[in-house]
UniProtKB/TrEMBL annotation:
The protein, known as: Molybdopterin-dependent oxidoreductase-like protein
Coiled-coil annotated residue ranges, if any: none
The organism of origin for this protein: Prauserella shujinwangii
One Pfam family per UniProt: Oxidored_molyb
SUPFAM superfamilies hit by this protein: Oxidoreductase molybdopterin-binding domain (SSF56524)
Length: 422
């Protein structure tokens, strides 16, 4: 019945008339995404694992049969999370021009009429819906999360996690269905020859069964070389405006696409904070001379003032701190080893440690650390950074800093640590 109806715009065959569209150009863009999108997906899932889902502190906590294989997130190398999450955010943003170009190249396919003519075609269209819907949802929510703080009426972490699996299902299914056609299309033309073809010499591809090639193409206003150049240039531009948030230094000032994490807070500690003490509801009276750290898990609680902590054998380490939004920085920290505090509490071989903050609300006012994170030689309850006491915005009077740990789990304004044997 649908096939007998006159299709509305933009479903009419003559709507899409660019002579550049065709299986070859679509397949070239598809190859780029086939290589890079799995990297973005894998690094995103690794970020979820870095949050310690075995402790129920990754979001979402209960994912049913979508649960990832459990393992202890490594503490070496110290820059591991900085690498994986920086790659996830930077590469994800750089692929936006490629994804948009790929969608442009298949617009006739997205608007075929009738939508499907057979069960096999219906299956293909369904996988396309999962793929396109999934990737657009992940891009839009990911970009908004980077640019703005908590703008959603739902949990970004939950939506992004499930959205990744929807995209992954569509991606795998679509690749399985389209890989033979993509391979044939890539072999139909020489990339080197296309990169040498001028606009005046650009001709449409032969008609194809998918209907990507226009039956009535307009004269070329751009060569395929030019089209690929625009996409490549846009990708490099986005990368240039993004990568500085991870590599730091002078390049950080060029990171115009990652405005979150630019608040340096107050005091002498000149590097980023995601949440200031005021935003966390920390009051001056909570961190005054009466503040004490409580160590739990042993025969009796142990309480230490800041002066008492400073009198303990100290340790210093240069460690990065990286945020889920993509920014990271490396600073020189000094304080007391967590493993020394475990010994002081009377827990000589802790299986984990539960750290609580003075911050009363929020999803990250506490964190559970794995055994390897507690026992690492450079895992600290930091009191100073870069030779100065922690400022209030950076976690005064004491904060956790652990190699390769996501930034929000490096708990600030620590009030207690419970070392657990199991």
């Amino acid at each position: 019945m649908l096939g007998m109806m006159r299709p509305p715009n933009p479903f009419r065959p003559g709507t899409w008339r660019s002579p550049l569209r065709g299986p070859w150009l679509t397949s070239v863009l598809a190859v780029v995404l086939l290589v890079t999108l799995p990297i973005v997906t894998i690094t995103g899932l690794l970020s979820y694992s870095a949050y310690g889902p075995q402790f129920g502190q990754a979001i979402p906590a209960d994912v049913g049969w979508l649960r990832l294989p459990p393992f202890d997130w490594p503490t070496d190398p110290a820059w591991l999370y900085r690498l994986t999450q920086g790659l996830h955010v930077i590469l994800g943003l750089m692929l936006v021009p490629v994804v948009l170009a790929k969608l442009w190249s298949v617009l006739p396919k997205l608007f075929t009429w009738p939508p499907f003519r057979s069960p096999a075609q219906a299956l293909e269209r369904f996988t396309l819906l999962l793929l396109v819907g999934g990737v657009l949802f992940e891009i839009v929510t990911g970009v908004l999360n980077i640019q703005y703080d908590y703008v959603f009426g739902f949990s970004f972490y939950t939506a992004h996690y499930y959205g990744a699996w929807v995209f992954l299902a569509g991606f795998v299914s679509h690749v399985a269905l389209k890989l033979p056609r993509m391979t044939r299309a890539l072999r139909s033309r020489s990339l080197r020859a296309e990169l040498r073809t001028s606009r005046a010499e650009t001709r449409p591809e032969p008609a194809d069964p998918d209907g990507l090639v226009s039956p009535d193409p307009e004269p070329a206003t751009l060569s395929r070389r030019g089209a690929l150049g625009i996409v490549a240039g846009g990708t490099l531009l986005v990368g240039t405006l993004t990568v500085g948030q991870t590599i730091g230094g002078a390049a950080r000032h060029t990171a115009l696409l990652l405005p979150r994490g630019r608040d340096l807070g107050t005091g002498p500690n000149d590097f980023q904070v995601n949440r200031t003490a005021a935003a966390a509801g920390i009051e001056a009276t909570q961190v005054g001379p009466e503040w004490t750290l409580e160590l739990l898990g042993g025969p009796e609680p142990v309480r230490l003032s800041r002066a008492g902590l400073a009198a303990l054998p100290g340790h210093a380490a240069t460690l990065p701190i990286a945020c889920v939004e993509g920014w990271s920085t490396t600073q020189h920290w000094a304080g007391v080893r967590l493993r020394d505090l475990a010994e002081l509490a009377g827990v000589h071989d802790p299986a984990s440690a539960h750290v609580r903050s003075l911050q009363r609300g929020g999803a990250f006012n506490q964190a559970t650390l794995q055994a390897n994170q507690v026992l690492h030689a450079d895992s600290l309850l930091a009191l100073r950074v870069n030779g100065a006491d922690l400022s209030l915005d950076h976690g005064f009077p004491a904060r956790v800093i652990v190699p390769a740990l996501p930034g929000v789990h490096n708990t600030k304004w620590v009030r207690s640590i419970e070392f657990r044997r199991a």
